[in-house]
Hints:
The complex is a heterodimer of chains A (114) and B (113).
Chain A: E1 4-6, E2 11-14, E3 19-25, E4 30-38, E5 45-51, E6 54-58, E7 61-66, E8 71-76, E9 85-94, E10 100-104, E11 108-113
Parallel strand pairs in A: 2-11
Antiparallel strand pairs in A: 1-3, 3-8, 4-5, 4-9, 6-7, 7-8, 9-10, 9-11
Chain B: E1 5-7, E2 10-13, E3 19-24, E4 31-37, E5 44-50, E6 53-56, E7 65-68, E8 75-79, E9 88-95, E10 103-104, E11 108-112
Parallel strand pairs in B: 2-11
Antiparallel strand pairs in B: 1-3, 3-8, 4-5, 4-9, 5-6, 7-8, 9-10, 9-11
Amino acid sequence: QKEVEQDPGPLSVPEGAIVSLNCTYSNSAFQYFMWYRQYSRKGPELLMYTYSSGNKEDGRFTAQVDKSSKYISLFIRDSQPSDSATYLCAMSGVSNFGNEKLTFGTGTRLTIIP
Amino acid sequence: EAGVAQSPRYKIIEKRQSVAFWCNPISGHATLYWYQQILGQGPKLLIQFQNNGVVDDSQLPKDRFSAERLKGVDSTLKIQPAKLEDSAVYLCASSSSLNTEAFFGQGTRLTVV
Lengths: 114, 113
């Protein structure tokens, strides 16, 4: 079983729709949760960073963490064509090997249709 | 604040040749990561440094890959000899400490033919 599971998509939604992206994880030691956006041929760009359970909002983006269910989500409101990218979830904390590292999901490819 | 710098951006080599990538992290960032991202997949950690010490290199193919971080700043990742399956984007990232957000460079796209 992978430590972090993410539906690879692809996901296509019309402009203006609400987008929901999700990841599940198995390592209960993960404490820090991140969402990255990656455009084609670019490096990942940090979008949201949260610690432990709860919600965090930044403009049109909301990150949600549910540690009891080992489930994190990213919501995008009023989606725009410029939001078309691959979205990667990432998390860190003490790994199964006893040290700390950043572990990524496989990424969800999102397309916003004008 | 300058971001993470990587070079070269693109590299094409033949199998069994050697190649090296360079990374300059954000100034003051103690933690440096090298990730391998194969097309259609998420980044996979190859090696993680804290200053100039290795924190995690459990997924680094040590028979062909090596990395160093001299003086706890710049880092180089080397592959010798390269295989076809090494074709990927090699991403460098840095963070100010363990368990804080990591910032990525643009990556080096390696094609092995």
